[in-house]
Amino acid sequence: MLTNRSTLIKQVGAAMISCIVGLSVIPASNSAGAVPQLTIPDMNYFPRIRTDLLINSITNKGNVSLVWSAPYPELISPLGAPAVGSDGTVYLGLNYFIYVGFQGVLSASTQDGKKKWDYSPPSPLLSPPTVGPDGTIYIGAGSSKYNEGDFIAIHPDGTPKWSVSLGPVSSKPVFGTDGTVYAAANDGMLYALDPADGTKKWFSKVGHTTTAYMSIGQDGTIYAGNESDTFYAIKPNGSIKWTFKAGGMVNTVPVIGTDGTIYIGAGDGKLYALNSNGSKQWEYGLKGIPTSPVIGNDGTTVYFGAADSTVYALHSNGTLKWKTGFGKAITQVVKGTNGTLHFLTADGMVQALNPDDGSLQWRYVLDTPDGINVPAVSEDGSVYAIGMKKTQLTLYALRVKVSDIALNVPKLTLQVGKSDALSVSLSPENAPNRKVTWSSSKSGVASVDSEGKVTGISAGTAIITAISDDSGLSVSCEVTVSTTPDTIEVESINMDRAELTVKEGGVGKLTATVLPVNASNQKMAWRSSDPAVARVNESGQVTGMTPGTAMVTAAAEDGGFTASSKVTVQPDTEKPETKAFTDIEGHWAKGEIARAFELQIVNGYPDFTFRPDGNVTRAEFVVMLMNALKPGVQGSELVFQDNDSIQPWAERSISQAVQLGIVNGYSDGTFRPDANITHAEMATMVFKASGMPLPADPSTDYSDDADIPEWARGAVSAAEKNGIIVVGGRSTGAFAPQQLSIRAEAAVWIVKMMDIRNKK
Questions:
Q1: CA dihedral of 176, 177, 180, 184, whole degrees rounded to 10
Q2: What is the pLDDT of residues 334-372, one digit of tens each?
Q3: What is the maximum alpha-carbon separation in the chain?
Q4: Nearest to residue 628, comparing CAs of 508, 528, 748?
Q5: The whole model's pTM is what?
Q6: Which pLDDT score is estimated for 146?
Q7: Per-residue CA distances from 75 to 55, 139, 343 (Å)
Q8: Mean pLDDT of the region 169-196
Q9: In percent, how much of the chain has pLDDT > 90?
Q10: pLDDT beyond 90 at 220
């Protein structure tokens, strides 16, 4: 679409453009004047500054590099500064001359300068591109002359998202914490739009004229300057919160300090500091009208340029920190991630100042004898600047690159379990992208975190490497991990018997010994291959659960050596045959508990009791549930923050429940296996295991329906309607969602759930 025109079209177009704007190829209403007219900064249009062609060329200075440059076809004019997405995509708003007027184009390029796509609205652009929090790009397009226009949202891939007719929109939008898009039309109307489809949430006649210069506070207050002397604070519902009268037109984008102070510049040549209630803290007089300010990385210093060709730095109390003068007009100041201040001067140079003292860090001369624009800075510190020469536009990418990387130590010796910190130094010091990526060649020997902290895991040698994200340069450190001098390592582990036989409900004892017997670390972990048959505790005591065989294994913490014993559980011929347990006679859940026992869903205690009114933990209930479902899945790897709290007898069941989507854990990443399960939690797990659909109406008939949490409401409703829930022997009355469940309820709910599954 953006192709070179014929020589004739170029000549005709150039002649027309020269007549209209004097070597500018944007519509007359958006054109910039000569250098003397720069006294009224327009920070949304970012007008080009006519360059003094009599200025002698000045060479580059400092260590900045031209990363790439991308020329655009002729007869194209930029509309404002570039915008940069979080992925590094560079967006540029353009208007180019065609036979009957101008056509708008939004152009997207990769961070290495390659064209991604172009998007053409049906009319010329009125506002430069703005990238929203979710990556959506917003532009205004239309005609101020005919009072018509659209506010357009575009996906990051260049496809239209939505468009809404608001009339001409020359202002850049701002965004609320909930994503709401606030757009100001040229007729003084402020719109709150839904970011999903552009639906109008509300609109309010604020009273600004033509262009609004907006920002938004943490509390949702919208601050807007305009082409008048009135500065507005607007509530998130569109009503006016307060106004402030400046001594001249407020044509700068407001900026908000970390303490809530609002800074604005006005046409009376003053920078104002306002309190959050609209009262004035102080004002600072200048010899020229200020451009939009920025807040430094220290959160207190405010920086801005002015029409007197000077960059100022003020303390938060309004006193001067420093100022640096230039012989030529300057654009707005923009701040990089490392705090460096960037702007262009009217002699076509990109300037970078040290925020501490205003000294020059670097400058780069663009081939721009016909105009300059405000630059943009990306997260990696790349500076994107636009240059114009006659009717030829070029986009430049500049950055101070990392040229060297060094470690604080070339070698490191650690003991197992000990940590030490590695650090890198990157040169030069003003390279903005100082991110490094750390890695270990053998994470089982030495691990390293994202900050360079190295931890010894086991004896051996590993190479820790740091790679500069900016340049790809790398540096490595050899890490040797050893045991402490007095540590005696485990060489093997021995089990006292190869086989063990216990009766159902009975107990036995296995003893494991690490060798050598004087090994420093005597810790070991016990586990059973089938906890439903045989359980083992941390001391090696084995409890027979149901007839069958299981392998019980002891694993040494040091070295991971293991030893196993085959455990055979024999039926207990002496236990009562007429009833499952000795303590359920006359209990309201007797029948379901007996069935649960027959189905091998639940087990009792060695004394043949079930203890129906005792509480049940989350781990115990999941084991019961998996005993009922008998899923043929291996189970997912457990990644809970409290994995160490999960006993071996419950590990497989919990991992199966995770794979089946029955349990997820808590928002803090824990499972809390030993916490007693509540009615709400138990109903949710039973519902997920049942395969029942969610009811269209999630209401219940319980007397405390309002107390049921929303995350459990659908599950409780479905379980109630299917007769699963029995609370203390009752199926009506109160559900008591936060009450701790008892073992009898657990058995009843699971048995009833299985009856429903078996009917399908």
A1: 10
A2: 999 999 999 999 888 999 999 999 999 999 998 766 677
A3: 111
A4: 748
A5: 0.59
A6: 83
A7: 25, 21, 25
A8: 94
A9: 64
A10: yes
Residue with tokens 């919208």: 222
Contacts of 187 (CB under 8 A, 6+ apart): 147, 167, 168
Q: Are 492 and 555 in contact (CB under 8 A)?
A: no
CA distance 636 to 627: 17
Question: Which is it for strands 411-415 and 474-482: parallel, antiparallel or unpaired?
Answer: parallel
CA dist., res. 606 & res. 444, Å (int): 42
Strand stretches in 155-194, DSSP E: 160-165, 174-175, 181-184, 189-193
Helix (H) or strand (E) holding 392: strand 392-399
Between the CA of residue 444 and those of 139, 410, 447, 460, 463, what are the distances in Å?
52, 20, 7, 9, 12
| Backbone phi, psi, residue 564, to 5° | -130, 160
Q: Which two tokens stand for residue 299?
A: 């959160």
What 699-708 contacts at long range (C-beta under 8 Å, 24+ apart), as own/partner pairs, is: 700/735, 701/732, 702/732, 702/733, 702/734, 702/735, 703/733, 703/734, 704/734, 704/735, 704/736, 704/737, 705/735, 707/735, 707/737, 707/738, 708/680, 708/735, 708/737
Concatenated DSSP letters of 531-549: TTTEEE-TT-EEEE-SSEE
Give the Cα separation of 234 and 231 in Å (integer).
Answer: 10
- Look at residue 759 in the predicted model and tell me its pLDDT: 76
Q: What is the dihedral of CA 725, 730, 732, 736, to 10 degrees?
A: -70
Q: pLDDT band at 46, cuts 50/70/90? A: very low
Instruction: Classify residue 513 by burial, with Cβ atoms within 10 Å: 0-12, 13-18, 19+.
Output: middle
The pLDDT score that the predictor gives to residue 2 is 34
What integer pLDDT is reported at residue 100 of this predicted model? 65
Tokens of 395: 């986009």
Q: How wide is the angle at C-alpha 320 spanned by C-alphas 319 and 322, nearest 5°?
A: 160
Residue 396 has a pLDDT of 95
Look at residue 364 in the predicted model and tell me its pLDDT: 94
Asked whether residue 489 carries a pLDDT value surpassing 60, the answer given is: yes
d(CA 710, CA 698): 10
Q: Is the dihedral of CA 47, 52, 58, 59 positive or negative?
A: positive
* pLDDT above 50 for 55: no
What is the DSSP track for 499-543? EEEEETT-EEE--EEEESTT-S---EEEEES-TTTEEE-TT-EEE
Enclosing H/E stretch for 143: strand 137-143
| Cβ–Cβ under 8 Å, residues 270 and 308 | no
Burial class (CB in 10 A: 0-12, 13-18, 19+), 143: middle
Residue at 24: amino acid letter: S
Cis bond before residue 369 (omega within 30° of 0): no
Instruction: Count the Cβ atoms, other than its own, within 10 Å of residue 6.
Output: 8
Q: Give me the numbers of helices (H) and strands (E) for the chain, helices first please.
A: 7, 51
| Mean pLDDT value of segment 592-612 | 87
Give CA–CA dist 304/293, Å, rounded: 4
- Rounded to whole angstroms, the Cα distance separating 113 from 394 reads 11
Number of residues assigned to the chain: 760
Three-state secondary structure call for residue 452? coil
- Least confident segment among 185-194, 456-465, 469-478, 605-614: 605-614
